[in-house]
Amino acid sequence: MIQITKRDAKLWSRLGARATYGQAILEMARQRDDFYVMSADLCQSSGLFKFREEFPDRFINSGIAEQNLIGVAAGLAKDGTNIFASSFAPFVTMRACEQVRMNMGYMQLNIKTVGLGSGLIMAQLGNSHYGVEDGSVMRVIPGLTVVNPADGVEIMKTVEAFCDYPHPAYLRLTGGPGLPMVHEGDIDFQIGKAIKIREGKDIAIIACGTMVYNAKKAAEILAGKGFEASVIDMHTIKPIDKEAVDAEMSKQLLVTVEEATIVGGLGSALAEYIAPKKQKPAQLMLGIKDTFPHAGTYQYLLEQCRLTGEQIAEDIEAALET
Amino acid sequence: MTDNERIKSLVQHAKQIRKRCLTMAFNCGGSAHLGGGLSLVEAMTVLYGDVMNTSNRTLPYEQMDKFILSKGHGVLGFYAALAEFGIVDPQLLMDTFMQNGSDFIAHPVMKPEFGLESSSGSLGQGISMAVGLALAAKKKGYPYQTYVLCGNGESNEGSVWEACMSAVNYGLDNFTMFLDNNHMQSDGHSPEVLNISDKYTGMLKALGFKVIEIDGNDMRQVYDAFHTPHENGKPKAIVGNTIKGKGVNFMENNNEWHHNRLTKDRYDEAMQQLEDKA
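Above: the input entities. Below: the C-alpha cells describing the complete assembly.
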C-alpha cells in the first residue's frame, strides 16, 4: 500500500498526470517485481525515466511501433504477468486498436494500456495528439475495463489497483501539470466503484477525469442559484457503477461531463444503462460535441468545448429551464 | 533413429496430415482455406513431429515450446498436425471442425490445453506475440523455444516488420520464424499484388536475422533448416518457398483453392492423389 498524504496530493497535482503515472510505476516497482513496463519511445513523456534508471531490466522499449508494443506486451503477458504499456492516447488506442482488440479483448491478456495526454491537454499540438475518442474506442471492445482518474491521487490509486487486477484495462490520463486536486489525501479506491464527491437533492452530475473537479465547481455555482447538485466521480467508465447511478434516479436531471467526445464515452455508458428504465430523469451529456476542436491553449479548448466549471453550470441551468 | 529414418517417417506423417486436411475440409461442408493450409504441412510436421517438445503435455508452461500460427487461416495443416502428434483428439477435431460451438474454427482461438497458444486471424499480429514470448523467456530464463509461422501475403502487413525489427533489437536467439512463402495471396500471385515475395531473404538479412532459404515443401530441407542452430544473439528466419495447395494437382498454384468447398468427387480425387504418392 502506498501511504498518501496531502503533501503527495499537492506534489502530484503539480507534476501532472503523466509524471504522476511514472511516479506511481516507480513506487509500485519498489514494492513488487511482478510486472513489466513498456513504452513506444515515450519513456521520458511517460514520466518513466527514473523507473528505467532504477529497473532497467523491467523496462522494454518497442520503438515508435504501437502495434508491436501491444503484440509484444501480449507475449510477455501470456504467463499471466502484468504489463503496463503506454503511448499517447490516440496512438495506443487507435493505431494499435486491432492489437488491443485481439490481445486484450479476444484473448483477455493481462495488459494495461496507458493513454498519455488524453483529452485536450496536448493543446497546441493539435487533434493528431488529442484523446477525443480513445475512451469510447476502448469501451466498445468486449471485456476491457476503462478508468479515467480524476486527479493525481486517483492515478496513484489506479496504478496500485491495476497491479492486483488480472484483467486487461485502459488507463486514460487526462490533465497536465497543475492538475486539479479533487482529493487531498488517501481515499478508498476500487475499480468500478464510483466516489461521491458531493451530495445534492436536485441534480446529479456524473463526471470522470479532469471533469470531476469542474463538475464540483459547477455544483458550487449552482448551489448559489438554489440548485443542489450531487457530484459523482465515475472514474471507471467501464464497467460503470450501476448502484451509484441507481441512487441518483430520483433527481430532476442527470448530467454527464467528460473531457472526451460525447459519442461512446461516459455519457453513452450511462444512457445505455438507464435507457430501459421506465422512470428516469432526463440526461444532459456534456463533452466534446462530435467535432475536432480548433487547437489552442488548454483553457481555450475547454472554453470552446464549454467544459469550464462556469460553462457546465450555465448549461445545466439552461437544461433545467427547458 | 538416424536423420534419414526420421525424415522418412516425417514424410509419412505429412501425408497423413494432408489427408486429414482434406477430410476436415470435406466434412465441414463449407469452404475452407485449403491452399494456404496445405503449403505449410512440412513445416508443421517437422515442428510438431520432431523439433518441439509439445507432445509431452505434462511440461510446465516455462518449459513447453511455443508455436504461434500468425497466418491464422492456415488452420487445416496446423490442427491436423496437432491431431497427428497426439495433442488434440483426432476424432474430436474431425467431428467438430467448423461446427457451431466448436473449439476448432477457421482461425485459431486461444486454448492452450489444445495447443492453441493464441487467437489469430487478423494478419500481422501473431509474430509480435511470438516476439513477446521469446523476450519473456530471455527475461525470466525460461528454456522454451518460440516458433512462429507467417505467410508471405501476411508479410504485406507493416506490423510484421515492426515485429521483425524488434526480434533483432532484443537479440532473440530463441526465436524462429518460418515464412511460408507460397508466392500467392487472396487476390492471386503475389508479384501481381505486392511484389516483394522474392525479397524476404534480403529484407530479413538486412535487419540482422540469420536467414535460411529453402524449398519449404522438401522435408529434408525443412528438417535441416529447423535443426540449424541459432547464431548468438540473432533471431532465425526460415524462408520456405512453398507451393500453395501442395500435394493435390488441381489445387497447386491455383487460387480458386485459396478458400473453397470440396465436393465428394473432388475430395475422392484429391485423396487418391495423396494415396498414390510414395
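Note for the figure: The first strand of chain A starts at residue 35 and ends at 39.
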